[in-house]
């Protein structure tokens, strides 16, 4: 893995905070990488999960809120298959299909059933049966093995935040400005 650019919180993972104008190597054996506002998550070929960078919201997932300028392993002895990073939150799927989330939850993006200003610096299990995951600025999305799509959506209405939750799964994907179905249950529903 090679990185370059802005490095204020150790976002590049090269052990420092100096801006880099050309690529520097920060790891080997990386099969997937994703970045949030100031943090990075990497998945190695052995299934191990590594993260670094801004950690004030617990986005690295190492149980602290201390910024990390070099990769640290998250949940040693555990293997993962998929990762995603939002602005200030992180998501990962373990090989057993369980979905885990950590970091900031100010808009309910962790899917823990609440929306609060506290940080969650340690991964929390959100659900089971997941095969894919994605994150937006303050949203989270997961595809389950049956093809259903789960999402946490925060809509802003009259200056208030509204967290739409339906039991444990969020399926209302419609934006008030979108022209597609409000309830997506399978990926084929949007085609």
Please tell me about this protein's structure.
This protein has no helices and 14 strands. It is an all-beta fold and 191 residues long. The strands form four sheets. The chain has a four-stranded antiparallel beta sheet, with no helix packed on it. Strands 7-8-9-10 form a four-stranded antiparallel beta sheet, with no helix packed on it. Strands 11-12-13-14 form a four-stranded antiparallel beta sheet, with no helix packed on it. A hairpin with a 4-residue loop joins strand 12 and strand 13 (149-157). It is globular. The chain starts with a strand and ends in a 27-residue tail after the last strand.
Any chance you could write out the topology, listing elements then pairs?
Layout lengths: L1 E4 L14 E6 L4 E6 L3 E6 L4 E5 L14 E7 L5 E6 L3 E6 L4 E6 L14 E9 L2 E6 L4 E5 L4 E9 L2 E5 L27
Antiparallel strand pairs: 1-2, 3-4, 4-5, 5-6, 7-8, 8-9, 9-10, 11-12, 12-13, 13-14
């Amino acid at each position: 893995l090679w990185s370059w650019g802005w490095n204020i919180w150790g976002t590049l993972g090269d052990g420092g905070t100096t801006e880099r104008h050309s690529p520097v190597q920060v790891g080997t054996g990386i099969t997937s990488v994703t970045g949030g506002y100031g943090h990075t998550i990497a998945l190695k070929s052995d299934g191990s999960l590594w993260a670094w960078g801004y950690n004030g919201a617990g986005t690295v997932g190492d149980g602290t809120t201390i910024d990390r300028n070099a990769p640290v392993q998250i949940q040693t002895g555990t293997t993962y298959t998929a990762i995603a990073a939002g602005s200030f939150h992180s998501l990962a799927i373990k090989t057993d299909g369980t979905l885990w989330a950590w970091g900031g939850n100010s808009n309910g993006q962790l899917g823990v059933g609440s929306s609060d200003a506290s940080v969650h610096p340690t991964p929390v299990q959100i659900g089971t049966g997941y095969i894919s995951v994605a994150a937006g600025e303050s949203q989270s999305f997961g595809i389950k093995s049956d093809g259903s799509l789960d999402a946490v959506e925060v809509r802003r209405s009259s200056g208030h935040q509204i967290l739409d939750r339906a039991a444990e799964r969020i399926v209302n994907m419609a934006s008030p400005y979108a022209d597609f179905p409000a309830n997506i249950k399978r990926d084929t529903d949007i085609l």
